[in-house]
Design brief:
Elements: E1 3-13, H1 16-24, E2 36-42, E3 45-51, H2 59-65, E4 71-78, E5 94-98, E6 101-108, H3 129-144, H4 151-165, E7 172-176, E8 181-185, E9 190-195, E10 200-202, E11 209-211, E12 221-226, E13 237-238, E14 243-248, E15 251-256
Antiparallel strand pairs: 1-4, 1-12, 2-3, 2-4, 5-6, 6-7, 7-8, 8-14, 9-12, 9-13, 10-11, 14-15
Helix pairs in contact: 3-4
């Protein structure tokens, strides 16, 4: 299976520390060697890097690791292919436009017998179940709303749509439109909110430590979401299976556990 990494914060922040540990799971400390990608929202734009090579040995990943891009919403993915060949078009995260905004999506899991009818507004470029699910989600949102709805309506709609896909298999995902970040846990997903007073953090996959008190301000707040904890000296909160969460400004602002487990 794949692994997910997301970040949502109240001020533009770089993800270099978390990505340093995460990328090693793509071929060094774990077996997710079938491609990787990362998307950074910057204002109304989205900067997306994709590579079908393993993240642990990718020269592009090395560039990203040393390039402190500041963003309020980030989604990253390392792939262990289940459906779809190893190719650039099958590399997450996927990006589409809806209501004049970019949307970015990454999925961990495997969907069985999921074959929805698409109306042509969104079509997969590759042949993964993940991109198909993303296209269907955006199609259904476009049918329900003429413009970007408020947070409550959008969250409720995503909850109902997720509940229709979830019975088809494992559907852990991250989704963002640059304002908020949505996370759904089917089996494994956790998060941590870092805020003042900031302390030291040590990566599980690398012997790397950072003192966040030296690189933050007292007003900073950062939520990091990952398939498995990235650090070994902090307390990560597991997300219960069947739970959809919405993060905004570095904190969880909505939770729905009504989706089937």
């Amino acid at each position: 299976m794949c692994q997910l990494l997301g970040m949502n914060c109240n001020t533009p922040t770089d993800i270099c520390f978390s990505f340093e540990g995460f990328r090693t799971r793509g071929g060094l400390t774990d077996v997710h060697t079938d491609g990787w990608g990362i998307a950074f929202f910057e204002g109304r734009g989205a900067r997306v890097f994709l590579d079908p090579q393993s993240s642990a040995h990718s020269r592009l990943a090395e560039l990203v690791r040393n390039y402190p891009i500041h963003s309020t919403n980030v989604i990253a993915h390392i792939r262990k292919a289940t459906k779809g060949r190893i190719a650039l078009e099958n590399t997450h995260p996927f990006e589409r436009e809806l209501w004049g905004r970019y949307w970015v999506f990454a999925h961990n899991g495997n969907l069985i017998d999921f074959a929805p009818t698409l109306d042509g507004n969104y079509q997969p470029v590759g042949d993964t179940d993940s991109e198909l699910a993303f296209c269907w989600l955006l199609q259904q949102l476009r049918v329900q709303f003429d413009a970007l709805p408020d947070d409550a309506a959008l969250f409720a709609a995503l909850g109902k749509l997720t509940a229709q896909i979830a019975p088809h298999g494992e559907f852990n995902f991250l989704l963002s439109n640059g304002d908020a970040l949505f996370a759904y846990c089917a089996k494994a997903l956790c998060y941590i909110v870092r805020q003042a007073p900031f302390t030291m953090a040590h990566l599980k996959d690398q012997d790397v430590t950072v003192d966040f008190s030296q690189v933050t301000t007292p007003d900073d707040r950062v939520a990091v979401i990952a398939t498995l904890p990235l650090t070994d000296n902090e307390t990560w909160t597991p997300i219960a299976p069947g739970t959809l969460m919405m993060f905004r400004d570095g904190t969880p602002v909505a939770t729905d556990s009504a989706a089937p487990r």
